[in-house]
Amino acid sequence: MNAPVKPDTLPQWRLDDLYADRNDPRIETDLDRAKAANDALVALKGQFVAARGEPARLGELLDRGVGLYEEATNALWGVGAYASLAASTARDDPAWSKFEADLRTRSSQIAAESLFFTLEINQLEDAEIEAALGAHAPAARWRPWVRRVRLSRPHELTPDLERMLVDRAPAVANWSRLSDETLARLTARVGKETLTLPELLNRLSSPDPTQRKNAAMALAKALGERAPTLALCLNTLAFEKQVEDRWRKHPDPAAARHLANEVDADAVAALEEAVVESYERVSHRYYRLKARVMGREALDHWDRNAPLDTAPPRAYGWDDAKALVLESFQDLAPKFADTAQVFFNQPWIDARPRAGKQSGAYSHPVNSERHPYVFMNYMGERRDVLTLAHELGHAVHQTLCAPLGTLLADTPLTLAETASIFGEGLVFERLLASASPDEKRGLLAGKIEDALNTVVRQIAFHRFETRFHAARQAGELSPQEIGGLWLEVMGESLGPAIRLTRGYEHYWAYISHFVHAPFYVYAYAFGDLLVRALMEKRREDPQGFAPLYEALLAAGGTKTYVEALAPFGLNPREKAFWAAGMKQIERLVDEFETLAPKK
Q1: Is the Cβ–Cβ distance between 100 and 106 less than 8 Å?
Q2: Phi-psi bin for 249: left (phi > 0), alpha (psi -120 to 50), beta?
Q3: pLDDT per residue over 410-423, tens digit each?
Q4: 95: how many CB neighbours lie within 10 A of its CB?
Q5: What is the tally of helices (H) and strands (E) in the chain?
């Protein structure tokens, strides 16, 4: 496991089972299919309200209407996924960017014709809909989707305003595109090397302190040079959101995300409060201990994820990572390993870093008629093995719930992170079990740091967004003002043992979630602490747990998070639920302290 990873040996996906290339005639065929389904749906306009008082007729109309809506969604999501997947590995190619943008515009124009459908559904009363679903049995399967549509009822606009928002969405999305392309083109000189953003971020975990420092300083300089552009993108999109939120009468900037996640604002507040209250006992204490282990009074921010062993870290070849993931998934249940194995057998994973490929990792579900694709930049380090497990956890989840159909399989973010974080946890358990005594301290440190990055850091990101959007109400923020908010919240979460040196104020600029998905980030903390509770249940009864867990994943978006966790006896609305998860992380810090040198 110590040979360096050769990038040209890593897998690249093939997208030709979607479309052969940008000129594939099947793209037009699918766009035509979407338009035909939408046209058939438009032909039903007005009939849903007209069927009031006729439950069986209304139920039949709802079943047909949602079926057509899903057919159009499948076609549009298929072409959209192809454009997004292809462009994500070619951000330096203007032709792919144009293709993606043009397809987004065409798709939104087609989808806009069906806007009336959910608006008309929401003109009906709850009792009328429930009677219709009961009177026509085939329509009952759509109950969870209708429930989610009803959540937006208090926040809907007039049909003309809704259409206007859809029509201008592609233009608004170009601000996200500008941010993506700015970061994808980012390079920095480090000694004799020219490094991309993923390579710079990877270098921050180097065992060589000089390499870490040089990469951190080069990244700060590169981000600082691009901060005006990236701040303009963030400010503009925040203002767009502010206007839409005001028209939709959302009470605060995070409310739309809570609605999409089907999560109570009180539950998110309880999560945030539990994490923040643990800062001193968990993150502040851990970084003090890490500084002591490294023989330092305090650490520079580029030492935050530094390995404790100064020898080169163990390199995991692709086959090593594959074996670890599959064996770990097998420990849970054969079905999980068998499902993940298919992704290795097929060209559905793109793990090879290369110029023009964007940073990050994801599993794209495409739609229920297709299969997911896994995207990452594999560098051969321990965290890359865990990232592979994370994204394959998503892929397994997306595969298991695909039989529900695209609309019902679509899972709120809070539950969507469950399988991914669980996958990481399974792999870590295997890594720890096979580690030598000397390796265990480093692995334990890595596990704690992963927890801090997933929980504490993401809640800090959430608090940064909260403060940024609140400040944006008064007007545009300069890069310096944004940097000041960033330093404030990150300093609170990291504590006095981490020095935030000059240049760190620009590091907000590479967090793409702030641009693409405002207030998404708390879902990671939500998912991590939720998974800690689930893993505790697994330890109590491994055999009884597996079928319950499979049922949770296979349910997709048909259950709320409260309903999904009820079979496990868990209640995430209580602050004690989140505090118990933080206590688990605190116990890891306790264990690490026993291995740290005494003062």
Answers
A1: no
A2: left
A3: 998 778 888 998 99
A4: 10
A5: 27, 7
Cα separation of 345 and 241, whole Å?
42
Chain centroid to Cα 437, Å, comes to 34
Could you give the CA distance from residue 31 to residue 369 in angstroms, rounded to a whole number?
15
Q: Which long-range contacts (CB under 8 A, 24 or more apart) does 15-18 make?
A: 15/82, 15/85, 15/86, 15/373, 17/370, 18/78, 18/81, 18/82, 18/85, 18/366, 18/370
> Per residue in 165-203, pLDDT tens?
988 988 999 999 999 999 999 999 999 999 999 999 999
Quick one: pLDDT at residue 150? 95
Task: Compute φ and ψ for 119, nearest 5 degrees.
Answer: -65, -40
What is the C-alpha separation between 518 and 241, in angstroms, rounded?
9
* pLDDT higher than threshold 90 for residue 51: yes
Question: What is the residue-averaged pLDDT of the chain?
Answer: 94
HEC states along 541-582?
A: CHHHHHHHHHHHHHCCCCCCHHHHHHHHCCCCCCHHHHHHHH
- Separation of alpha carbons 417 and 397, rounded Å: 9
Distance of CA 166 to the CA centre of its chain: 23
- The SS3 assignment for 83 reads helix
pLDDT digits (tens, 9 = 90+) for 339-364: 999 999 999 999 999 989 998 899 99
Task: Write the pLDDT tens digit of every residue in 236-281.
Answer: 999 999 999 999 999 999 999 999 888 989 999 999 999 999 999 9
**Left (φ > 0), alpha (ψ -120 to 50) or beta: where does 262 sit?**
left
Give the DSSP H/E element, type plus range, for residue 362.
strand 362-364
Compute the distance between CA of residue 398 and CA of residue 239 in angstroms, rounded to an integer.
33
Bridge-partner residues for 364, per DSSP?
Answer: 373
Please provide residue 189's backbone torsions phi and psi, each rounded to the nearest 5 degrees.
-80, 125
The residue count for the chain:
599
- 3-state SS assignment for residue 330: helix
Alpha-carbon distance of 349 to 13, in angstroms, equals 5
Mean pLDDT of 299-315: 87
**Which residues are paired to 104 by β-bridges?**
none
Helices marked H in 348-478 — which ranges?
382-401, 406-409, 413-416, 418-433, 437-451, 457-472
Say which residues have a Cβ less than 8 Å from residue 247's Cβ, sequence separation at least 6: 157, 161
Q: Which two tokens stand for residue 420?
A: 């991914």
Task: Determine phi and psi for 333, rounding to 5 degrees.
Answer: -170, 140
- Distance CA(69)–CA(72), nearest Å, equals 5
Asked if 306 contacts 369 with a C-beta cutoff of 8 angstroms, the reply is: no
**DSSP label of 598:** P
Q: Is the CB of residue 340 less than 8 Å from the CB of residue 323?
A: no
The rounded distance, in Å, linking the Cα atoms of 589 and 287 is: 10
CB 367, CB 406: distance < 8 Å: yes
- pTM of the model as a whole: 0.81
pLDDT at 2: 60
The answer to whether 298 and 496 are in contact (CB under 8 A) is yes
